[in-house]
Design a protein that fits this description.
This protein is α/β, with parallel strands linked by helices. The protein folds into three domains: about 100 residues, no CATH class; about 200 residues, 3-Layer(aba) Sandwich (Rossmann fold); about 100 residues, no CATH class. The chain is built from 22 helices and ten strands. This is Helicase conserved C-terminal domain protein. It holds the Pfam family Helicase_C.
Length: about 525
């Protein structure tokens, strides 16, 4: 969250303000729900929390009550939850108080852009202004064309406008299929997110402004690729980059990360011009070797490894697909569980998406986790943004054959996921009837689970957690009190609890509980992909 906020601030003060306002609204709604005895948990409740503020807030709370009725406030530590919410709300209010006075006329970055646009070469030629965020694109358009009467300035940041029409108006020479309609004029300045960064001919212009910088240098190259194309009438193309403010750069390290990655691109595949900094060392020999040595595969190294796709971007892609191609969206949404595919990547391994949900609670998605395994089957990463970036591809890319032992590797992931689900389920099942000694041993077992990678020990810890979370006999209470007084931890505690588990035949307790039919979340594989 910290990095996301810094990135939004690096993009524009408006994007940052909107994000803070949204977070504040969500926290305030959560607080009000708590006051009315509601725990707004679950997928449906989360969607309601983030709904735009278009009506009465009590209507939102009523909707949350209906969506969250199955969650009992008594199962949570409401006092601690309320305390943490109040702390976060105060912090968000303080942040908002600090940034709200930064109006457009005091926004140095925006005023610099305005100044550039009123001077050569931007004043006299067609210009593309790229930003990563829709909020920033909207902000720029509202301030560069406040009355909406400047026909030669346009913005596009999602599927709400006809992309082909906007592209045709900006670059009619490069897109001869498009004929200007009556009353239409050519676009001189076009503000866009990366919806225009790939596969479009915009070479009527030769100027690009990167109002913010993407984490992935390939995205920057793709932006320049919209105007630096075969058929361009321009001998030279120019790029203007807004670099992060010094304080933001200290926290993000964005410029340095990009600089390092860009130099790797120069050294590996070559580029014929600087991308971010005129001091970059070019490698023309490597550039010309692309045509001889599968350069596209070399480039994919930087696309895969350097690409991070946060959930906001991923959700925007899905919303855009739903608007522009609802039939394809429905087809994807109705795909069966367990689907598999393979594609080329220099990041070898397997990506697996797991879910554990309750069969009789269709409205609750349960636990979900993405995994990236290396070629040895070891978990390399569970970072959602990184894995989503690796999954992103073009619709035209053909699937490859699955590698040998693929199913075995995927099933091993399922086993690990099932253990994690059991552990998380044990942590979730808070009960007021637990004694202080039970809480102590369960806390120590949780620490042991998190610090060991031994699969057999993890299985045993899961069993012990389930057993010692049940109502226990007076004799067992005395035994656990003794363990707590002795402050046993780690292996010593683990060994003592195993003895008690065996001596008191606690396995029979668990078996009887299962026979009583208590519902447990069922782990499944939603989908998987081999990286070959």
């Amino acid at each position: 969250m910290r990095v996301l906020l810094f990135k939004r601030f690096e993009s524009s003060v408006y994007a940052f303000q909107q994000t803070v306002k949204k977070l504040l609204q969500v926290h305030q709604r959560f607080r009000e729900a708590l006051r009315q005895g509601i725990i707004p948990a679950g997928e449906e409740a989360q969607a309601i929390l983030y709904e735009p503020n278009n009506g009465e807030e009590q209507d939102i709370i009523d909707a949350l009550r209906q969506a969250s009725g199955k969650y009992d406030l008594a199962d949570f530590d409401a006092t601690i939850l309320q305390k943490h919410l109040e702390h976060d709300i105060q912090l968000l209010e303080k942040i908002l108080h600090l940034v709200e006075p930064i109006t457009p006329d005091k926004d140095a970055k925006l005023q610099t852009l305005k100044s550039w646009l009123n001077k050569p070469p931007l004043q006299d030629s067609k210009c593309l202004i790229f930003t990563q965020y829709a909020d920033t694109a909207y902000y720029l358009y509202q301030n560069l064309n406040p009355n909406g009467d400047q026909d030669d300035l346009e913005v596009i940041y999602s599927g709400d406008k006809d992309k082909a029409r906007v592209v045709g108006r900006f670059a009619p020479k490069a897109n001869k299929y498009y004929k200007l309609q009556q009353g239409e004029s050519e676009i001189k300045t076009l503000i866009a997110t990366d919806v225009l960064a790939e596969g479009l001919n915009l070479q009527d212009g030769h100027l690009i402004v990167n109002y913010d910088l993407h984490w992935n240098p390939v995205r920057l190259i793709q932006r320049f690729g919209r105007i630096d194309r075969i058929g361009s009438e321009n001998d030279v193309v120019y790029g203007f980059n807004f670099l992060p403010e010094t304080g933001l750069e200290r926290n993000l390290g964005l410029r340095q990360k990009l600089k390092n990655r860009i130099q790797e691109i120069h050294e590996t595949i070559g580029e014929d011009a600087a991308i971010l900094d005129p001091t970059e060392q070019l490698n023309e020999e490597a550039m010309y070797a692309i045509s001889e040595k599968s350069g596209s595969h070399q480039l994919s190294l930087f696309e895969d490894e350097g690409e991070f796709l946060d959930l906001n971007e991923a959700e925007e892609i899905l919303r855009q697909l739903q608007r522009e191609n609802p039939a394809e969206y429905e087809r994807i949404a109705n795909l069966p569980h367990g689907i598999r595919t393979a594609r080329f990547s220099l990041n070898k391994g397997i990506i697996v998406f797991c879910e554990a949900s309750y069969p009789n609670r269709k409205d609750w998605k349960g636990y979900q986790q993405l995994y990236w395994l290396d070629e040895q089957g070891e978990i390399r990463s569970k970072d959602t943004a990184r894995i989503l970036g690796m999954l992103k591809t073009n619709p035209e890319e053909a699937a490859l054959p699955l590698p040998k032992n693929y199913n075995q590797a995927v099933m091993q992931v399922k086993v690990k996921f099932a253990q994690e689900v059991q552990h998380r389920q044990s942590e979730r099942e808070y009960s007021r009837s637990l004694t202080q000694a039970q809480r102590y041993v369960l806390r120590e077992l949780g620490l042991l689970f998190k610090t060991t990678q031994d699969e057999e020990i993890r299985k045993q810890v899961n069993l012990l957690e389930q057993a010692f979370r049940q109502p226990i006999t007076t004799v067992l209470k005395r035994e656990l009190n003794l363990i707590k007084r002795r402050s046993l931890t780690g292996e010593a505690l683990f060994s003592e609890l195993k003895k008690l588990y065996s001596q008191h035949e606690m396995r029979d307790w668990l078996d009887r509980r299962r026979l009583q039919g208590e519902e447990q979340p069922i782990p499944i594989i939603i989908c998987s992909q081999a990286l070959v």
